[in-house]
Amino acid sequence: MRRVTSSVLALALVGALAGCEAPPNEGAFASDEFVSQSRYVPPGSPTVTLLTMIYNDNGRSGHSALLIDGPEERVLFDPAGSWHHPVVPERNDVLYGMTPQLFGFYMDYHARETVDVHVHEIDVAPEIAAQLIDAVEAYGQVGSARCAYATSEVLSQTPGFETITRRWYPTRVMADFAQLPGVRESIVLDDDSDDNLELLQAQAAQAARLERARALLSE
User: Residues 4, 56: contact at Cβ < 8 Å?
Assistant: First the structure.
């Protein structure tokens, strides 16, 4: 996986809603204990990062997600997302415990030979990050093809992000977000196969092996 920083992103702003069409992960509401045990507190100051998956052959929209590094924990709002991991608690479309390794799994799953991940990160006040975490937790399950709308709706109601319009296309949410003062932009590229289901299964198998190793050590 390679990260390429760019000061200017020349992207098409039209395309079909081909991403964020995963079926709802019915019943995905992790216990308080699982969420608490898995909580990850990121280093550094609070940030909000918009992740936009874009097909690199024609700039077509793929998916929108929002990583929130708050003062007390990190959460990933992945509306109608298709990535899951057995050690990551999920409540509706909010993922908890996203350590650097697990977040790397998430990015590796999405960045592949046909899809680039565009990253837009901005510093925020601790109270804004906390408010945004509350908002995504309260949003509820997001239906297929509504990832960009859900992401932009939550952002548009948050102080400092009022200029973001409710949008149906991930690239258009990205264009609004990119206009915010102080945004840092980069692109994650990968030449892995487009068969990310195989990668998802490999990540789950790795987690199972680690759990078995921990169980043996505790005996």
Answer: no
